[in-house]
Amino acid sequence: MRKSRYSNSQIPAILKQNENGVSVADLCHERGMSSAQFYK
User: Fold this and answer.
1) Could you give the count of Cα atoms lying within 13 Å of 36 in the half-sphere of its Cβ?
2) N or C: less crowded end of the chain, CB within 10 Å?
3) C-alpha to C-alpha distance for 8 and 10, rounded to whole angstroms
């Protein structure tokens, strides 16, 4: 099985930033991921 690019502590932090009003596009640009990966 493939190892996740983000740790189990980073994923909730990214989602919390989105809940606090940071756009998906900005989060994806900061982290270097696609928006499809964010929604997966």
Assistant:
1) 0
2) N
3) 6
pLDDT digits (tens, 9 = 90+) for 8-35: 888 899 999 999 999 999 999 998 988 8
For the chain, what are the domain ranges? Answer: 10-39
H/E segment holding residue 23: none
As a whole number of angstroms, the distance between CA 7 and CA 34 comes to: 17
The residue to which tokens 């009003």 are assigned? 21
**Are 38 and 28 within 8 A, CB to CB?**
yes
Block residue for tokens 């919390």: 16
pTM of the predicted model as reported, rounded to 2 decimal places: 0.73
